[in-house]
Amino acid sequence: MARSTTGKRSLSVGISGLFLLVILSFIHLTQGQADYTVSQLVKEVWVEGRIQDIVLSLRLPRLAIGILAGGALAIAGAVLQTLTNNPLASASTLGINAGAYFFVVVSMIFFPSMLGDFPFLVALAGAVLSSVLVVTLAGKQMEPVRVALTGMIISLLFASMTGSLQLLFENQTNGLFLWGSGTLVQLNWNGVSFAGPMIIILFIFTLGLAKPMDILSLGEDVASSLGQNVRVIKLLAWAAAILLAATTVSVVGPIGFIGLMAPHIVRMLGIRGHLQIFLQSFLWGSVMLIGADVLGRLIQPGQEVPVGAMTALVGGPWLLYLAWRTAKTHSRGDRQMGGTLKPVKLPIVVAIVTALIVGVLTLALSYNGSVWSMDWMKPVIWNFRVPRVLTAFIVGVMLALAGVLLQGVLRNPLADASVLGVTSMGGAGAMLLLVMIPSIPVEYMPLGAVVGAAIALGIILVTSWKNNFQPMLVALMGIAISAFGSAATQVFVVKAKLAVAAALVWLSGSTYGKGWEDVQLALIMVAILIGPAIYLTRSLDTLTFGDDVAAGLGLSVKTTRVWALVVGVAISTAGVAIVGTIGFVGLVAPHIARRLVGFRHLPLLVVSGLLGGLLLVTADFVGRILIAPKDIPSGLVVALIGTPYLLYLLRKMK
Questions:
Q1: I need a surface site. Which of 155, 187, 315, 572 has the fewest CB within 10 A?
Q2: Among 488, 501, 490, 526, which Cα is nearest to 610's?
């Protein structure tokens, strides 16, 4: 009886999905600059003429690739969620899409003929590298939060390197911005003829893995006891997911969220067993992607809205829901913070770090990449270089202070404004402002950044309040917000019809063109926020013993977490408003400081602040002289330095 009921449910779900796909496909074929109705389509598509030419050469290939890509992404997501035992897993959240896109950008710049001849192999190389990094760094247990954090950091690494290349080689990569946001635009049948056979073969191959994956989902120990070769099955499943992701990225770009949502919707509809899940996921992934493309062209008829924009708008709230549900079903997730048990005396550390700061400041003020000058009062140095260097130092201090507070309150050594989504949503808010008001000067972008960061903080406060700001819940919500903000930012860059490089410089974090008014603003913000940060250090010290002990000692755990979150986000938002979306300083500086002065938060705050200033000034100096007279945004330099260090730390964390 149960099997009969399951079969009827699967049949009804499949018929419903197929009906939706047919309706959406008819609408999809009528959309575009060449206007005609559904009745005209049905009557005239069979005879030679304008409508047949448009349908066969442009719209049918777009529809076909949408159906194939949506199905492929959904199946890849279903496979990855079982393999990693992580409901947040998909090709986008694990960094697979970001790795594939990075390799495509590299190939476009340095090996354009290879990209033209072998686009799939180029994307595949990046997808494989990302997957290897995730598996290696996440560990055998594949703990959900660890996997999600690993995927996010790997995505940030590839996004940073991609952003650097797009800034340095703007002319070569201009054509990739729309494609990089995910688009179904097809000018002929070449994409379909390449991707179609690949996806169909991989789809059939994945269906053959359905029964072994049913057994694998019971646990590796159970699967092994039943005679399954777990290693081979996992290797084959990883290969199928990677190949599916690489195939879609090589043709339509990195489209997110479909692989995350479709398998969950299928399961929510009552579908069980991997065979039915794979079949239904392919169908509903196609429905969702075609539906997103239809919606995008309904919103702005006659203009090309990247389909990645629509999947991000729908998928962001869905990811937030999944993050909330995942956190509710797992342990609290408190972690060892990685500090030394034999701290160096604070005056010694401060003296050494201060000496390093003086040396780097002297170097940064005296050298412009080609000429040395110790005359810092010269107008060109005093009016441009000195405020730029001082702004970098003060903002570096601010970002490091925010990192200390956020890591302390979340009991997670990988927490900062980037992980909470504040930086990402700040960038999205700034770009949205430019999209809504195209004529607004770039100088007003910080207003949008403040609003975006405030929204991120508001979402975290609302969703976490009832759960006493459980660290795992806050971290997972931050990951979801960050993924949504990054996807939205990429789309807004395409939609904002302005010089892309100008927007990317701000989004990448840059102290370029900062003056004395920026120094004054930074000093004012530090003066306002440093007091509350210092006041919170004693409460954060108490929290290191755990929530129960802290509550027993009379500490209001919820109140402490709220204020630490608010102050930490306020400090990081002030920094973002001044220099753009710089990440990693708040991650790296507290780690280094913790290994020098231990766990106590007051000395940690002092040393982290100094190290943050040192790190950002160094990054700004390197970015300024490395390819002088061109300028690499300091945020990208920090990311390129900080990400490998964080991946190393993640690998060492238990």
A1: 187
A2: 526
pLDDT tens track for 564-577 = 888 888 888 888 87
- Give the separation between CA 583 and CA 414, rounded to whole angstroms: 12
Collect all residues with Cβ–Cβ distance below 8 Å to 652 and sequence separation of at least 6: 338
SS (H, E, C) 12-44: HHHHHHHHHHHHHHHHHHHCCCCCCCHHHHHHH
Q: From residue 314, give the alpha-carbon distance in Å to each of 121, 124, 255, 262, 324.
A: 31, 27, 13, 12, 16
Separate counts of helices (H) and strands (E) for the chain = 30, 0
- CB neighbour list of residue 53: distance below 8 Å, 6 or more residues apart: none
Decide if pLDDT at 147 tops 50: yes
pLDDT score for 65? 92
Distance separating alpha carbons of residues 100 and 125, to the nearest angstrom: 7
Strand partners, 367: 372
Total residue length of the chain:
654
| Main-chain dihedrals φ then ψ at residue 254, nearest 5 degrees | -80, 100
pTM recorded for the entire structure: 0.77
Q: Is the pLDDT of residue 333 over 50?
A: no
Q: Residue for token digits 């201009």?
A: 174
What does DSSP assign to residue 416? S
> Which two tokens mark 596?
């020098």
Cα four-point dihedral sign 37, 43, 45, 51:
negative
In this structure, what token pair is assigned to residue 569? 């986000």
pLDDT in tens, 49-99: 777 777 777 788 889 999 999 999 999 999 988 888 777 778 887 888 888
Token duo for residue 136? 């290696």
For the record, the structure tokens of 188 come out as 């002929």
| Tokens of residue 281, six digits | 């996921």
- Residue 635 CA to residue 505 CA, distance in Å, equals 9
Distance CA 167, CA 169 (A): 6
Asked if residue 34 has pLDDT above 70, the reply is: no
Contact present, 397 and 415 (Cβ < 8 Å): no
Under the banding of pLDDT at 50, 70 and 90, the label for residue 36 is: low
The Cα-based distances of 384 to 378, 391, 511, 519, 624 in angstroms read 10, 11, 10, 11, 13
Alpha carbons within 13 A on the beta-carbon side of 592:
20
In the beta sheet, which residues pair with residue 372? 367
Asked whether 630 and 512 are in contact (CB, 8 A), the reply is: no
267-299: per-residue pLDDT in tens? 888 888 889 999 999 999 999 999 988 888 787
- 306 near 40, Cβ under 8 Å? no
Q: DSSP secondary structure string, 180-218?
A: HT-----SSSHHHHHHHHHHHHHHHHHHHTHHHHHHHTT
DSSP H helices in 580-633: 585-597, 601-625
Given the structure tokens 């690993």, which residue do they identify? Answer: 150
Query: Nearest Cα to 326, choosing from 165, 472, 190?
Result: 472
Q: Is the peptide bond before 603 cis (omega within 30 degrees of 0)?
A: no
Answer for the pair 327, 484: CB distance below 8 angstroms, yes or no. no
